[in-house]
Design goal:
The chain has 26 helices and 14 strands. The chain has 590 residues and is of the alpha+beta class. α1 crosses α4, α20 runs parallel beside α22 and α20 crosses α24. It is globular and about 75 Å long. It binds zinc ion. The site of zinc ion has 8 residues, from loops.
């Protein structure tokens, strides 16, 4: 059954033709030590090199974050793409034709490539018209009205499609095929521009390649405000996240993506400094889109229109993201506005008001509960029963491992005890047991992501003060990373003084950033907060420190070698191998 497909051959062929060292060198400065090359790991923050490339085996390993792999894995991580994307990039580089597979496949790729080239050309043409041609005037006026600056517009590569057959003429002048433009959904059969008299917004993939367009009319008498490109071999709606190419770095930096409904919401958001905003682009959020977002963050802030449809869509998106282990909060914009109106209305206070709005965003469960009790009178026992029944239904729509924590939260929120059992008439809900898989999932979430182990521990302690008793003797503040140290010490004092409720009373005296971290943990607790996990995190922090020390020694070692200090080399080598053994032991016992 394990016949090797053409894909496997392509991987092997590409791997044979590219050199890992060359590929890595474009991103990391490597220095040679013995037969290996060392550099600063591009996947985690570090000051001394623990990232090692083995040219013989064509493999790499980081002693700091433990990421490792071959040239495909490296490109996957550094370009934030998937396996197929890495293959494509490397194949192009190596000059390997991926599609000498079958004639049909080749035909499909060729036509896709032509479509993409055509879409790129169209985007350039529209952008040129918008800024450099008198015909672009209506588009410029619309942008002015919407308070979108030229700088922002250019980042999104906005354009304008003039009335008539301008694009067809342009293509003829460039001796390009009109058929491709028609296939790309840019042009009608008679050569008339599909987007005529519209501001054109390219929908680009996460590497800024235009895949399609959405276009807003500039005419007051036009019924259809927006029209969109059809799906083509180059464009599948449910697979693209609008704005991701511009937002990806900011998403990683802030540890959160802001999901909006409309493309214009996103453009306005970026204009007003919300650089991590993206949109699901013309569909309800899909599995593919969630997976795409997951490459960049584990946390989603949903900001949809405040109307009924928007709320329903927000809830749906939240549940889907929850099934992919994302933490989701939902921001409710006041006065029934959409994000675009809200930001423009706030004017110079946009950033401030946006921060306030997102700081109070409710975890998705609370958002759903609010909606469920609307119109009910919760001082009436019958109504409470109705509310409990609705909330039960709501909770059961989330992944099973969230049922019990959600039940507890709902109980607190509603102020009456209630059970999930029997809600669907199919017997009692399974008793809650700690899931062994959970820690693995946790690991995957923490490793190298912006939520560091230390931060996780602090959040856990904020949510579960009882865990402190078990932790305080196991780790001292100076064993933590520098940025977490002060906060841990402060919490230690607070709990010592005021017991479990101390934090709530003293929070006001904490630095703003720490307050924020704690409030966020309260609003959206990390996925698991039990004592056992707390101990594991502590072990993890210790382990990480040992690894940092290990890479420090390795660095020192290369210095000593360069200076031919034989004695120092021997001592450091002994130290390094002892430490490596200890790390190994510790890892095996976990
Ligand atoms: Zn690393």
């Amino acid at each position: 059954m394990s016949s090797r497909g053409p894909q496997d051959d392509a991987f092997a062929e590409v791997k044979a033709k590219v050199d890992l060292v060359k590929v890595v060198s474009e991103h990391v400065r490597l220095t040679k030590r013995n037969k290996d090359l060392w550099g600063l790991c591009p996947f985690h923050q570090e000051d001394s090199p623990s990232f090692k490339v083995d040219p013989q085996r064509q493999s790499w390993y980081c002693f700091g974050c433990e990421r490792h792999g071959d040239v495909f894995t490296f490109v996957e991580l550094i370009e934030k793409t998937d396996k197929r994307g890495a293959l494509q990039l490397l194949a192009e580089r190596a000059g390997v034709e991926l599609q000498k597979l079958s004639p049909e496949q080749k035909e499909r790729t060729d036509s896709r490539r032509r479509l993409l080239a055509m879409l790129k050309l169209a985007a350039q043409y529209y952008e040129y018209v918008l800024w450099s041609s008198p015909a672009g005037e209506p588009g410029r006026r619309l942008l002015l009205q919407r308070q979108v600056s030229e700088e922002t517009a250019r980042r999104f590569q906005l354009g304008y499609a003039p009335a008539g057959r301008g694009f067809a003429e342009y293509l003829r002048a460039k001796k390009r095929s009109l058929a491709d433009a028609q296939a790309a959904g840019l042009m009608r059969r008679d050569g008339a521009d599909f987007f005529a008299e519209r501001l054109v917004i390219p929908i680009r993939d996460e590497r800024s390649q235009p895949l399609a367009f959405t276009a807003r009319t500039v005419r007051a008498d036009e019924q259809r405000k927006y029209i969109n490109s059809p799906e083509t071999p180059a464009y599948v709606k449910g697979r693209v996240i609008f704005g991701l190419d511009l937002a990806r770095d900011e998403i990683t930096r802030r540890g959160q993506a802001v999901l909006m409904e409309g493309q214009f919401d996103v453009i306005t958001a970026h204009q007003f400094g919300v650089g991590n905003a993206v949109a699901s682009s013309g569909t309800a959020l899909t599995e593919d889109q969630v997976r795409l977002l997951k490459r960049f963050t584990d946390e989603l802030l949903v900001v949809f229109d405040a109307d009924r449809a928007g709320r329903a869509a927000a809830e749906k998106a939240s549940k889907l993201a929850a099934f992919h282990d994302m933490r989701v909060r939902v921001a409710d914009i006041p006065d029934g506005k959409d994000p675009d109106e809200f930001l423009r209305g706030a004017g110079p206070q946009a950033v401030e008001r946006w921060e306030a709005l997102t700081a109070t965003a409710a975890p998705s469960l609370e958002f759903g509960m609010e909606a469920r009790v609307e119109g009910l009178n919760l001082s009436n026992a019958n109504h409470v029963e109705v509310a409990a029944a609705r909330i039960r239904e709501l909770i059961l729509e989330y992944p099973e491992h969230l049922w019990e924590p959600y039940r507890e939260r709902a109980e607190r929120w509603l102020g009456v005890p209630f059970q999930l059992r029997g809600a669907r008439g199919n017997g009692p809900v399974r008793p809650q047991t700690p899931k062994p898989a959970q820690t693995n999932g946790l690991d995957a979430r923490i490793v190298g992501k912006k939520l560091t182990v230390g931060r996780y521990l602090l959040q856990l302690l904020a949510v579960n003060p009882a865990a402190f008793e078990r932790i305080r003797t196991k780790i001292t503040p100076d064993e933590l990373d520098e940025e977490d140290r002060a906060m841990y010490a402060r919490m230690l004092e607070t709990y010592g003084r005021g017991g479990a409720s101390g934090l709530e009373n003293e929070l006001g005296e904490y630095p703003a950033e720490e307050q924020d971290l704690i409030r966020r943990a309260w609003a959206a607790p990390p996925p698991s907060v039990d004592d056992r996990l707390a101990e594991e995190l502590v072990a993890r922090i210790r382990l990480d420190r040992m690894k940092v020390r290990h890479s420090g020694i390795i660095r020192e070692l290369s210095e000593a070698e360069r200076g031919r200090e034989a004695e120092r080399v021997a001592r450091l080598e002994a130290e390094a191998s002892e430490l490596a053994r200890a790390i190994n032991d510790m890892e095996r016992s976990r």
